[in-house]
């Protein structure tokens, strides 16, 4: 079975083909709009929709050619139906529906976060056995999810204000770094002294599994003001200490969640899972606690269509009924999904 995956929920237009007989992605492409949005300091929804509209048809053709496939070689289309920006989602969904109609292919709506959840399965290794814990950290979400099966998700912790990725992006803005801030902070942090500033680790002493990141950006702002004009080393030190504070909270709370749910496997996913410090600290904590940690390949941490096609394949394998009764849903809740 060959499934065409389409992703357009935010600022990446992406297309991929997953082949279930070889369990592999046979072709894929991601067109990023980062440069377009960087000059505005963040994603502009209307601009994102227009770019998706311009790029998507050609990107599908490119991926079909790369995969040496014709529409007749495909068995289904999986498309991100939410959550995300409404206009951006509508471009992918409308294209998928039209292509499905013309080529007589079933179209399956996929939840964007469910894509991120299962992205480690794209590395060719077996997915860990259920139940496992997942830390989903992206620009819009910070979630700790207990996964008991495909479609069986229980959110046990989440951010009460900013998402972890948003915190990276906002901290980057304070330090005058371009959007998206995560990779920029990470680059700058490499030469920084991680011990120079003591930034808060919010919610670490709370008994629940929730997070809070809005105070960190403010703490960085005060430290910035106190050290103005910033020299290069101070900027790097601020980046290193902010990055460490975010990663430290994510690691400690994830490990605690695994412990309290008696779970021995943790998956980290979403754009922030690309962060090297987070990956390293998570690995160290794993060795100490015995909780096994799975992370997706770097290119499957940020938004892509391979994860959407892959979840489509898992859903087909599970025998999911294809209904016509669905639409793009910018606020689609992960917990609303069914097995
Ligand atoms: O999952 P994603 O690509 O898009 C959403 O669904 O939001 O995540 C994007 C977020 C951005 O906030 C970006 O700054 C962050 O992931 N990010 C990183 C890194 N790469 C991307 N944060 C920290 N370190 C990175 N290396
Ligand atoms: Zn995402």
Describe this protein's structure.
Strands 3-2-1-4-5 form a 5-stranded mixed sheet, sandwiched between helices. It has helices spanning 34-38, 45-66, 86-103, 112-118, 164-174, 181-189, 214-226, 232-260, 276-289, 306-318, and strands at 2-7, 12-19, 24-32, 76-82, 107-111, 132-137, 142-149, 152-158, 265-269, 292-294. It folds into 2 domains: 2-118 and 300-336, Nucleotidyltransferase, domain 5 (2-Layer Sandwich), CATH 3.30.420; 129-295, ATPase, nucleotide binding domain (Nucleotidyltransferase, domain 5). By secondary structure, it is α/β, with parallel strands linked by helices. Helices cover 42% and strands 19% of the residues. Helix 4 packs across helix 10 (306-318), helix 5 crosses helix 6 (181-189) and helix 8 (232-260) runs parallel beside helix 9 (276-289). The longest helix is centred in the last third of the chain and has 29 residues, at 232-260. 5'-O-[(R)-(carboxyoxy)(hydroxy)phosphoryl]adenosine binds at residues 10, 138-140, 165, 168-169, 180-183, 186, 270-272, 274-275, 302-303.
Topology:
Blueprint: E1 2-7, E2 12-19, E3 24-32, H1 34-38, H2 45-66, E4 76-82, H3 86-103, E5 107-111, H4 112-118, E6 132-137, E7 142-149, E8 152-158, H5 164-174, H6 181-189, H7 214-226, H8 232-260, E9 265-269, H9 276-289, E10 292-294, H10 306-318
Helix pairs in contact: 2-3, 4-10, 5-6, 5-7, 5-8, 6-8, 7-8, 8-9
The structure holds 5'-O-[(R)-(carboxyoxy)(hydroxy)phosphoryl]adenosine and zinc ion.
Features:
Nucleotidyltransferase, domain 5; single chain; 10 helices; binds zinc ion; globular; 339 residues; 10 strands; five-stranded mixed beta sheet; alpha/beta; binds 5'-O-[(R)-(carboxyoxy)(hydroxy)phosphoryl]adenosine
């Amino acid at each position: 079975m060959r499934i065409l995956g389409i992703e357009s929920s935010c600022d990446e237009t992406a297309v991929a083909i997953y082949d279930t007989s070889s369990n592999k992605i046979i072709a894929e492409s991601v067109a990023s709009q980062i440069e377009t949005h960087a000059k505005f300091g963040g994603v502009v929804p209307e601009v994102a929709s227009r770019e998706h509209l311009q790029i998507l048809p050609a990107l599908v053709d490119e991926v079909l050619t790369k995969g040496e496939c014709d529409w007749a070689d495909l068995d289904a289309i999986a498309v991100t139906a939410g959550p995300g920006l409404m206009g951006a989602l509508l471009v992918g969904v409308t294209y998928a529906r039209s292509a499905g109609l013309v080529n007589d292919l079933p179209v399956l709506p996929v939840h964007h976060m469910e894509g991120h959840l299962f992205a480690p399965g794209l590395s060719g290794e077996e997915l860990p056995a259920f139940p496992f814990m997942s830390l989903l950290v992206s620009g819009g979400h910070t979630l700790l999810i207990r996964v008991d099966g495909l479609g069986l998700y229980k959110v046990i912790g989440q951010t009460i204000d900013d998402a972890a990725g948003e915190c990276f992006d906002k901290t980057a803005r304070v330090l005058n770094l371009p959007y998206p801030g995560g990779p920029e902070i990470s680059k700058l942090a490499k030469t920084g002294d991680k011990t120079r500033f003591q930034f808060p680790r919010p919610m670490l002493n709370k008994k629940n599994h929730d997070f809070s990141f809005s105070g960190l950006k403010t703490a960085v702002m005060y430290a910035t003001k106190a050290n103005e004009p910033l020299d290069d080393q101070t900027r790097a030190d601020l980046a290193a200490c902010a990055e460490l504070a975010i990663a430290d909270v994510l690691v400690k709370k994830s490990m605690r969640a695994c412990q309290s749910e008696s779970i021995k496997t943790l998956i980290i996913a979403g754009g922030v899972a690309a962060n090297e410090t987070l990956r390293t600290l998570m690995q160290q904590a794993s060795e100490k606690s015995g909780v096994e940690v799975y992370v997706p390949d770097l290119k499957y941490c940020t938004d892509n269509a391979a994860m959407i096609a892959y979840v489509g394949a898992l859903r087909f394998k599970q025998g999911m009924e294809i209904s016509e009764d669905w639409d793009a849903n910018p606020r689609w809740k992960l917990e609303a999904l069914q097995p």
